[in-house]
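User: Please fill in residues for this 182-position structure.
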């Protein structure tokens, strides 16, 4: 199956099935990350959920309560994305895609990146919306520092195989409502 076909099918399934308020448990993600890194010194990069994605705002709120720094993406020119250190209490502006993003703040480079996805496979390959924002971002971050990438997904978004290209960036982990792939 082509990427575009998988994406279309995955997004249709996600829209249909994500009406049951399915969530990823914060504790599951926190325990995983605590095992592999010192959370207090890290910056977490999240996302503002759209199109029936896993809602990570509750997760980010709990990280904030634990005094862990969070950041959210801001879309820039040339299909680039910067992460802005912020609080969920800060003001947001709606970007050209209709997604809220930090209105102002300092550009940071997350140590841990929570990544939305349309589909994934057992080999930790992800399929996004097709514009390559996260693939470019992950590649750029890895040139700067060690970054832990964690895809957040519903278990039903798993496909047998996702076609990949030289531009696609594999994730380190995928956490679903049912399990953790690593």
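Assistant: Residues filled in for all 182 positions:
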């Amino acid at each position: 199956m082509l990427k575009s076909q998988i994406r279309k099918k995955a997004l249709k399934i996600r829209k249909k099935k994500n009406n049951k308020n399915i969530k990823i448990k914060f504790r599951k993600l926190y325990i995983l990350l605590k095992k592999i890194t010192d959370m207090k010194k890290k910056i977490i990069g999240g996302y503002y959920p759209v199109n029936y994605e896993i809602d990570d705002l509750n997760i980010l709120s709990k990280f904030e309560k634990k005094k862990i720094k969070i950041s959210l993406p801001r879309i820039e020119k040339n299909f680039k994305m910067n992460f802005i250190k912020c609080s969920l209490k800060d003001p947001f502006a709606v970007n050209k895609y209709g997604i809220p993003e930090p209105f102002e703040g300092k550009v940071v480079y997350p140590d841990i990146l929570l990544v939305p996805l349309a589909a994934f496979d057992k080999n930790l390959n992800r399929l996004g919306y097709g514009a390559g924002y996260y693939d470019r971002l992950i590649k750029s971050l890895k040139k700067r520092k060690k970054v832990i990438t964690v895809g957040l997904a519903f278990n039903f978004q798993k496909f047998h195989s996702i076609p990949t290209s030289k531009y696609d960036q594999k994730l380190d982990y995928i956490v679903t409502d049912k399990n953790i792939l690593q």
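For context: The chain is about 25% helix and 25% strand.
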